[in-house]
Amino acid sequence: MPEEVELSSGIYYAPVHLPLKIQHLTSQNVLWHRHKDFYELVIVCGGSARHVNQERSETIHAGHVFLMPERSAHRYLDQKNFRYYNVIFHPSLLKTEIPGVHLETLPGYHTLFDFQSTGENRCSRMLTVDEVVLAKLVPMLSELRSEIRNRRPGWQEGAYFLFMQIMVFLLRNGSPAESAAFRDVFPIGHAIRLMEQDCAQDFTIRKLAEASGTSPSCFRHNFTRITGLPPRAYLLALRIRRAILLLNGSETIGEVAVRSGFPDSNYFSRIVRDRLGLSPREIRRKYSTGELSPDALLDRLKPSVSGDLRIGARERKTKHVRSVRAFRGGKKLGA
């Protein structure tokens, strides 16, 4: 075993407090470390890394969830924009004496709690959640983190019930990594990340399907099932979101349009007015006077808990036929 650091629960929570801590971490130099007396639940939100112990090495990415028990050792290598939550807790938190309440009855329980290997190499199998479940899970983790950090009256009770809610949600909605459902989801996640990285790029259904390793028809069906929107509508929402932010800068309206993926500034203005009720010039003027903020406009485009992005019903109807033709012909999604 390479040189390792032994981590004790005392660095995360005091003996008199609820034995629970949550961290939101990004790519960093993680040494070999061993958990002396606590469990670590890892929920990967973005990027990728190689998870390593003395017996196994596997690539993990967004949607992967696994559990490291006490006295286990591991580390991460080859991190690429790796973002994850660590939920650190004492296993006693899982033992409730309430009649009829048993985590063991939930579908994902044995994937997480029937540990593989022995000694320092113990680790759960990989549980996976899809994009929609992950989008619901992250706000719950953030709320738990705030509860523990702010320590308002009743914080320990609030944090405990949030923790149990997260565990139930995970065990109810997760699937083993080898399941067919998971194989369908994360090719779509790859396409979503491509669009989010540069929404101004000229995307077509064919290009995104090729990047995801699926056929165009299968890609379109799975994308809509998972996100609640067709690819074109999803991309359009991303472009409007970028425009909302860029309009708060010094670039001209035409420059904002191009950088947001709208080569035609007149079409850009029509779409913005249709979605937001204001023209780009009106938005910029209200920004400058303090009547409006980018955050207020972004709220209109936020994903709902189902993963849907709000889009105007009128625009959906008028663009539907053209969208279908564009998809089939391999035209740009933003056209």
What do you see in this structure?
This protein has 335 residues and is an alpha+beta fold. It folds into 2 domains: 5-175, Jelly Rolls; 181-329, Arc Repressor Mutant, subunit A. The chain is built from 12 helices and 9 strands. The chain has helices at residues 109-113, 131-150, 155-173, 180-197, 205-212, 216-227, 231-246, 253-259, 265-276, 280-289, 294-298, 313-329; strands at 5-7, 20-26, 33-35, 39-52, 57-61, 64-68, 73-89, 127-128, 175-176. Strands 1, 2, 3, 4, 5, 6, 7, 8 and 9 form a 9-stranded mixed sheet that branches. Helix 2 (131-150) packs antiparallel against helix 3 (155-173), helix 4 (180-197) crosses helix 5 and helix 5 (205-212) crosses helix 6 (216-227). The longest helix is centred in the middle third of the chain and has 20 residues, at 131-150. The chain is globular.
